[in-house]
């Protein structure tokens, strides 16, 4: 492995990350590994290096992670293809209240990132199917697909519901309570 340069970790867009590998030093290189890891962590730097993997030279990004160094193979810029129309939103003049509503939505769902709470549901269902078949049992019933909900203009729906309860597609008007006699 040959380190070519160092870069600020914040300068690297994750779109370039392809595959991640844990890097473990050989016994003779443990001190140099620990020094490099500590320095890179304190400075928030990453290293760009050349390495031979699978009989091919690759460019990798090495970054500190949980008291060790992670090595990421990268996509080259020519391998990243944008979709036609990406980044060209038709709406240029977003209203402050609309942005506030979008921020409120995001804040309401904000949680710390805990990767252990996410699982490959497809792989789990395949495993369950294989296990049931190997035991001679019928496979699990397929789940019904959820129908996508209608996209509505949130600001219009909010304004109409505040203005008098007129029904908007995808929303329901507030109910009035009847007084008992």
Strand content: 15-25%
**What's the CATH class of the domain at 2-79, please?**
Mainly Beta
- The percent of residues in helical segments reads 25-40%
How many helices in DSSP terms? Answer: 4
CATH architecture of the domain at 2-79: Beta Barrel
Please give the order of strands in the largest beta sheet.
Answer: 1-3-4-5-2
Query: What class do helices, strands and sheet pairing give?
Result: alpha+beta
Please give a structural write-up.
- With 181 residues, the chain is α+β, with helices and mostly antiparallel strands.
- It has a domain at 2-79: Ku70, Chain: A, Domain 2, CATH 2.40.290.10.
- 28% of the residues lie in helices and 22% in strands.
- It has helices at 30-43, 96-108, 121-134, 154-163; strands spanning 2-8, 17-23, 45-53, 56-65, 68-74.
- Strands 1-3-4-5-2 form a five-stranded antiparallel β-sheet.
- Strand 4 (56-65) and strand 5 (68-74) form a beta hairpin.
- The protein starts with a strand and ends in an 18-residue tail after the last helix.
Characteristics of this structure?
181 residues, alpha+beta, Ku70, Chain: A, Domain 2, five-stranded antiparallel beta sheet
Compact overview of the structure:
This protein has 181 residues and is of the alpha+beta class.
Helices and strands, with pairings:
Blueprint: E1 2-8, E2 17-23, H1 30-43, E3 45-53, E4 56-65, E5 68-74, H2 96-108, H3 121-134, H4 154-163
């Amino acid at each position: 492995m040959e380190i070519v340069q160092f870069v600020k970790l914040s300068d690297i867009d994750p779109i370039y990350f392809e595959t991640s590998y844990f890097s473990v030093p050989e016994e003779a290189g443990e001190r140099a590994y620990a020094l490099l890891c500590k320095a890179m962590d304190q400075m928030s730097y990453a290293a760009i290096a050349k390495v031979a993997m699978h009989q091919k030279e690759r460019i990798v990004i090495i970054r500190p992670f949980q008291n060790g160094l992670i090595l990421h193979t990268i996509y080259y810029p020519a391998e990243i293809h944008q979709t036609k129309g990406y980044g060209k939103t038709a709406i240029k003049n977003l209203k402050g209240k609309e942005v506030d509503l979008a921020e409120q939505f995001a804040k309401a769902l904000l949680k710390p990132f805990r990767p252990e709470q996410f699982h490959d549901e497809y792989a789990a269902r395949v495993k369950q199917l294989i296990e049931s078949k190997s035991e001679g049992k019928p496979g699990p019933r397929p789940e019904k697909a959820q129908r996508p909900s209608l996209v509505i203009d949130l600001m219009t729906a909010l304004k109409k519901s505040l203005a008098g309860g007129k029904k908007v597609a995808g929303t329901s008007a507030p109910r009035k309570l009847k007084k008992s006699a």
